Structures are given as structure tokens and as C-alpha cells.
Amino acid sequence: MKQGPILLLRALLATGFLIQLLLKIASHLIFQPAQANETHLVTELGYQGALSAENRTQSQSPLSRSLLYGQPSLSGSFEMSESGVIEFRGGTRGSLKQDGSMELSVRAFWISMSQEKWKISAGFQEIPWGETFGFPILDIVNPRDSQDPLIQEASWVRMPVGALNTQLFLNRLTLQGIFVPLPRVPLLPRISFNSSNEAHLNALDTASEYGGKASYLFDSGIDLGLIFYHHWNRTPSYNISFTTPNTIDRVLKQIDTFGMTLSRGFGQIVVRGDSAVHLNSPLLQWTNPQSRDSLQGTQWQTILGSDITFDSDWTWGLQLQTEARIGTQSFQLSKWATTRVSK
Asked: What is the DSSP string of 203-224?
């Protein structure tokens, strides 16, 4: 256990050294600045941590995973007055498990180049979409790590993906394109799945994810975004059979998502809304051992809410959410409200 923090620090220092080396090479090969072109290199070292105290009746519960998280990061920019800006970020997360072992994961390792009208980023990164909090109906580029149910903050549970992220800025219009050649799937609490789903897992090696977002800021202050993304289903789905032998098969399938997001500020109050339609989404199915194909249907999710920020910097938000699952022979409609207080 004593080697865990030392290993984490070494990984961070190595990450920072490699990124700064890449920056120096890129500055000479790409920009080729003139003698009068000033350059500025700014770096920042940060740390983020969380303590999760768990108290469960079963010490070996599959939901009781980690006690301590630590996430050091190194970020910075290499600015050239005439040619543009190179930015970088590297981050490593350390997770101290209950058995005393250390788990390391890369949280960020990307480099970007930008000018006034465009920006290109490549590497492991987080790409948040959507305006609302809680259930991420449009925050679909990054899968989520749900192995520890006590930590649900979006910045912590998002899983970075190796992506090419391009942005084009045209006054009030912003166009964004995303390509993920080697996608990842959400991590769930440790449940033993039937091995018949290995073919779906192996398909991840060859099936990429891609899509984009178009955002426009109107004169009225409304920020409207339209989204399309071709991806592996983010909502967990299973084939369940109670015949002999009993099986629980996790279903992974590529689907198409069309979405819309909007926000509008009124002083201290912000109104937000997200809506997403997931086509050919796998649905929960009670089946028999001879059938391994999940039912498919349309999943339509909508969230409308508002939040207010007080003078004391406290923020209170309230949201209403509806979800409809439409299958060939079924229809399910759910409604609920969520609230959040933060500072």
C-alpha cells in the first residue's frame, strides 16, 4: 500500500514530461515561428480527491469497492502570439481499495491546437454534452464508471475516451465533430455475466463511435444545440432467463441517438432542457436459452428544469424527467422529479 502514492506520483511526472516534450517538437515542426513571434509556456499542477466512507453489512459486497480516490493532474498551454495556441492535459487517478491494493487509471492525456476559428483535440479526454444534471441522457460521448455507487459526480464517473475532437467557430454557430476509433462501454457493479455475450464484447475492437453537435446562440439569449451520435448503448440492458441453466446476458448494441439541448438565463435563474431519442435501443427481455437476441425499441427521454443561484453562491435546481420505452408490443412511460443543492 505504501507504494501506491509513489507509483501515482511517478505516473503523473512521466505524463507531464512526455506532454511537454511533444509540445516542444510540435512548436518547431508545425508553427515555425519567426524571431519576432513571442511564445509563452504556462503549466499548472492540480489535485482532486474524495473520501468515500462505506458501512455495509457484508464486507465482501460487490458494491463496496473503493475507500479513497486521488486524482493529480498537469495542464498548461503553449501560446504563440501569431500562430495559435497548443494546450495539453495529463491526469492520473489512484483508487485505494478495501484490500489495500492500488488501482491506477488514466483520466486525461490529450493535446490540442487552436486558432480563432477552429480547434482540434486528440487523445484521452472528456466531452460533456447536455445542460441538465442527474441522469445523463445527452452526456453520451463518455461512458460512465458506476462500480462505486457512492460517487456519482459527473466529472468523477465519466470514463475518458481516445477521441479526435474538432470544433469550428462561425460567429454564433459552433460545429463539433467527434470520432472514437476504439470505444469503451460503461463499467457496472461486479455481477457475473454469462459468457455467451463474449461475441458482443469482441465487436468493440472493430466498431467505432462518431457524431457531432451544432450549437447556435440566438439574439434572445437561447443557446440551442442539435446532436447526433452513433454509439454503443449506454443504458444497461440484459437478457434474463430463469430456465435451466439460469442466465443473465448483458446486451451491447450500436444505436443512433438524436438529441436537442437548450438553455436560457434570466439573471440568477437558468432554464435548461435536454431531449434524446435513442433508435433501435435494446430493451430488457425475459427469454429462453435458445434466444440470444434482445428486443429492440425506441427510447425517448426528456428533461426540463431550472436552477437558481443565490447571493451566497448556493445553487438550487429542480428538474422534471419523462422516459418512454416503445417496443414492438410494449409501451412503458415513467415520470419523476429530481432536485439538487450545491455550492
From this structure: GGGT--EEEEEEEEE-TTS-EE
Strands 285-286 and 238-241 come out as: parallel
Asked whether the predicted pLDDT for residue 5 surpasses 90, the reply is no
Tell me the helices (H) and strands (E) count for the chain, helix number first: 3, 17
Is there a contact between 136 and 144 (Cβ–Cβ < 8 Å)?
A: yes
Find out whether 247 and 289 touch, Cβ atoms under 8 Å: yes
Q: CA 277, CA 226: separation in Å to the nearest integer?
A: 12
Cell matching residue 153: 459526480
**Considering the entire predicted model, what is its pTM?**
0.78
DSSP annotation of 60: T
Peptide bond into 72 cis (omega under 30): no
Q: E strand or H helix at 335, and its extent?
A: strand 331-342
What's the distance, CA 248 to chain centroid? 26
In Å, what is the CA distance from 196 to each residue of 79, 244, 278?
Answer: 52, 15, 25
C-alpha grid cell for residue 76?
Answer: 498548461
